[in-house]
Amino acid sequence: MFAWNDFFDSGAPETIKQQTTRQTPSNARVYVLLCLFNRCTSTDYGGALSCSSSVEYLLLESSAFFSCTTTSDRGGGVYIYNSNCQSVLHKVCGYDCYSNSVGHFSYTRVKYTATSKNYYNYSSISHCRKESYGTEMLTICYGKICCLSVNSSNNKCSRYSSVYCVPTASSSAIC
User: Fold this and answer.
1) Rounded to an integer, what distance in angstroms lies between the CA atom of residue 148 and that of residue 146?
2) Which of 30, 36, 101, 121 lies at a CB distance of 3.0 to 4.6 Å from 90, suitable for a disulfide?
3) CA-to-CA distance for 149 and 175, rounded, in angstroms?
4) CA 97 to CA 127: how far, in whole Å?
5) C-alpha separations of 90 from 33, 63, 148, 156, 169 in Å
6) What φ, ψ does residue 34 adopt, rounded to 5°?
7) Per-residue pLDDT for the chain (175 aa), expressed as one digit of tens each?
8) What 3-state class would DSSP assign to 5?
9) Distance (Å, rounded) from C-alpha 103 to C-alpha 93?
10) What is the spatial distance between Cα 56 and Cα 14, in angstroms, rounded to a whole number?
């Protein structure tokens, strides 16, 4: 496992460890570690994990999302939306997650700068298959997008691609 300081040089984070229920953290720095989200559902964005306006740095590591859903339109498993945020998803497993629109597994929209991290590292997403709804399995918007060793298998979307990237204009996306 890595440490918070391997990805961010900001202060100490709130650590959410070994949780199984839906989480909506509100601290500026959040480290989600060794969690197993199983059958989490929500009518709001993000079936299992929802991070919005207050979260500025998020590290989600060594965690799994199984059969997590939202009846909202974004992020069946994970939803991150903040114009001041940076996020790293490292060693994350997603299985059988869906939303009613974009980001069957996750929807991440971070700070619109070329230096803001929007990373998916060493992760596996499979069997996210809500064909009648949804356009992408991963929706990754803004920042420096880097998808390093991401396995995507047995996923189905109603249209578009499995991974949808919208990089910041001045950054390079590695998808």
Assistant:
1) 6
2) 121
3) 9
4) 8
5) 10, 9, 9, 23, 24
6) 55, 45
7) 578 999 998 889 999 999 999 999 999 999 999 999 999 999 999 999 999 889 999 999 999 999 999 988 899 999 999 989 999 999 999 999 988 888 889 999 999 998 899 999 999 998 776 655 556 788 899 999 999 998 877 776 666 667 888 888 766 656 5
8) helix
9) 15
10) 12
